[in-house]
Design a protein that fits this description.
The chain is of the alpha/beta class. Helices cover about 30% and strands about 30% of the residues. It is globular, with a radius of gyration of 23 Å.
Length: about 475
């Protein structure tokens, strides 16, 4: 059976249209079904839906023979693993974007902070630019929000320079031209008959010349001026699914944040608390940002904090208020396993094979910690970006995933073996508190935030 990895997200509709035009259409895929596996070309292939960044990895490992994704993610893989087994077959002619270096004003020289969803490409560019001192901050998204306060340069994908300028940034250089590409596993090309799928898809291609990463000769706007010292308290608020719960907590606390509303993303909204500035970023990135002192307070999930803490046990980040909202469980999820609990599942797998037990999770550090705590023996953790319900049983034995209503679990006919961690949203801070004039502002804001808890807590504890 030929295995095909298809993208969810921004490329989904265009990919569905291309497949239909090529005579390989999948009705449910194009309709956006919650299911993640679909038969393709009759019985010739099975298609599985992934987040784009996971597709090159799955093809490189040989779990999938063919994939479609943005070429940027293939390049991101190649910069870290140059001997990978991904073959770039053809440009499919849609999903065009460029990778840009962008900044906001003058940047201190020689130390540059570079933020990106593409940290491997960012590292490669820094080396090619021969930067003497730099730091690359990997983030889950919203890299455009970081300059100038939290980074000097952002490496981001955009359609054109105007889109960069709309973020309040100055386009510095394009470094990579991307579009949707058809890729394949090198070993599968050599050993499997893939023609039933490749023939129609190659026919949809518009070219086979793969662009190269291009580093500019220099980075403009360098300055020898030092960064000014911070004089205001900094609070990070989450975007995405966590936003609605955070808005409810702020409302309960009597805090107004103009521009921070459901369905809107203003990266620097105004807060009605004097001496405080706010930035909206991804909750997954908050523990790291608080740990390195970029923010004094942040509202994120206890699951995200746990993932950070098990990776960095000596991290200075701590939870100071449990807001009690955005409740859901981290759970062990399997499919087609004749067992009622985790111990039974482990016995079942060990009786069938000595191979490592594969654990897929967006919380890779929690997954690793959980497997060690439960004495899995031989195991491997597969970090993933999302669209996770389709990983079991073909690509992993276990999925460690957050579940709230369980609708996706039911839709994909999965089984929850165990719920092992209850997550809510919380306020986090660095154990080293702000000093001077910022300390009373910090204490007052924390006390306000305590009032936003779903079940109000007593004042004074934790801060």
């Amino acid at each position: 059976m030929i295995r095909v990895a298809l993208p969810t997200g921004d490329l989904r509709k265009q990919t569905a249209a291309m497949l239909a035009a090529a005579g390989a259409g999948i009705d449910d895929y194009g309709a956006g079904s919650r299911a993640l596996r679909f038969p393709m070309l009759g019985d010739a292939a099975i298609a599985r839906v992934f987040r784009e960044r996971d597709i090159p990895v799955q093809v490189a490992l040989g779990n999938y023979d063919i994939g479609i994704c943005s070429l940027t993610w293939v390049e991101e893989l190649a910069q870290r693993f140059p001997s990978h087994d991904v073959v770039r077959l053809c440009d499919l002619g849609y999903g065009a974007q460029s990778l840009w270096l962008a900044g906001a004003g003058e940047m201190p020289d020689p130390s540059l902070r570079i933020v990106s969803e593409y940290p491997n490409i960012a590292e490669a560019l820094a080396r090619r630019l021969r930067l003497a001192h730099y730091r690359v901050f990997p983030v889950a998204g919203a890299a455009e929000a970081y300059p100038p306060e939290d980074a000097d340069i952002a490496l981001i994908a955009a359609d054109n320079a105007s889109e960069i300028e709309a973020h309040g940034l100055r386009p510095l250089a394009t470094v990579f031209e991307s579009s949707a590409w058809l890729i394949a596993n090198r070993r599968s090309l050599a050993s499997k008959g893939l023609c039933a799928v490749l023939a129609p898809l190659l026919g949809a291609g518009v070219g086979t010349r793969s662009p190269s990463l291009v580093a500019p000769p220099s980075v403009a706007l360098l300055s020898s001026a030092p960064r000014p010292a911070r004089t205001t308290l900094r609070l990070a608020l989450p975007d995405g699914h966590a936003q609605a719960h955070t808005i409810a907590a702020l409302r309960m606390a009597g805090i107004a944040v103009a521009g921070y509303g459901e369905g809107t993303v203003v990266r620097r909204p105004a807060i009605d608390v004097g001496g405080v500035e706010v930035k909206v970023i991804r909750p997954q990135d908050m523990p790291q940002q608080v740990a390195i002192g970029q923010f004094d307070l942040a509202i994120t999930g206890r699951d995200v904090l746990l993932d950070h803490a098990v990776q960095f046990p000596s991290s200075p980040v701590e939870e100071i208020v449990d807001l009690g909202r955005s409740k859901y469980s981290l759970a062990v999820i399997v499919k087609d396993v004749p067992a009622d609990d985790l111990a039974g599942a482990l016995r079942y797998w060990r009786s069938r094979s000595d191979a490592p037990i594969r654990i897929a999770s967006e919380f890779a550090n929690i997954a690793d910690h959980f497997a060690r705590e439960r004495h899995f023996g031989r195991y491997s953790v597969i970090p993933i970006a999302g669209a996770s319900e389709g990983y079991v049983p073909d690509d992993a034995e276990i999925l460690i995933e957050g579940i709230e209503t369980g609708a996706s679990v039911i839709a994909n006919k999965l089984t929850v073996l165990e719920r092992f961690f209850e997550s809510t949203n919380c306020v986090i801070a660095n154990k080293v508190r702000p000093e001077g004039a910022m300390r009373p502002v910090f204490d007052a804001l924390v006390e306000k935030l305590r009032l936003g808890a779903a079940t109000p807590v007593a004042a004074g504890g934790g801060a």
